[in-house]
Amino acid sequence: xxxxxxxxxxxxxxxxxxxxxxxxxxxxxxxxxxxxxxxxxxxxxxxxxxxxxxxxxxxxxxxxxxxxxxxxxxxxxxxxxxxxxxxxxxxxxxxxxxx
Amino acid sequence: xxxxxxxxxxxxxxxxxxxxxxxxxxxxxxxxxxxxxxxxxxxxxxxxxxxxxxxxxxxxxxxxxxxxxxxxxxxxxxxxxxxxxxxxxxxxxxxxxxx
Lengths: 99, 99
What we know:
Chains A, B: This is Putative pterin-4-alpha-carbinolamine dehydratase. Chain A is an alpha+beta fold. Helix content of chain A is about 45%, strand content about 20%.
C-alpha cells in the first residue's frame, strides 16, 4: 500500500470516521490513540497477535502498551511526521479484529 | 508457584541479580523495569509471544510497551503492592528468551 500523509478533506473525513469508532487525536502529536479493553489477557494478547501479523505485512507498526486485558494503541507514520492512510488502514483492522 | 512479596535479604539478593542483568527499580513504585531492543518487529513480537505464553501459565502478567523493535517492560505484583518472587521468575524468563 502506498503511504501518503492525510491532508485536507481526506484527513477530515478519515478522522471523523475514526472518532466515530472511539479513536481520539493525541495532544501535542499528529497521532491517533484508542484504548481497547478485552475480557482477559488471553483475549488481549490474541488480538495483539492478529494485529501484529497485519502490521508486519503492511510494514507499518503500532505503538502499544499492554497490561493484562487492556491495550492502549497510538498510531502515526513516523516517516511522514503524521497520520497517513496506513494509520487509517491499521486502525480499521484493529477495530474489526476487536469485534 | 506460590507468590510472596520479597523482603529483607531475599529482596536484596534478587535485586542485585536483576540489576546485574540490566533491570532497574522504577522511581515512585515498587517495580522493576527493563528496555529490550531486538533486531526488528518480528524478533520483538516473537519474544513477546514467548513471554506471553509463560506469563499466562504463571497467571502473572507484565506491563509492557512496544514500538517496532523495542519493548519496555515493567514488572510488579499488584496484589502484593510490590516486587514478588513471580516478578523475579518472569524477569528471568524474559532475559533467557532474549538470549
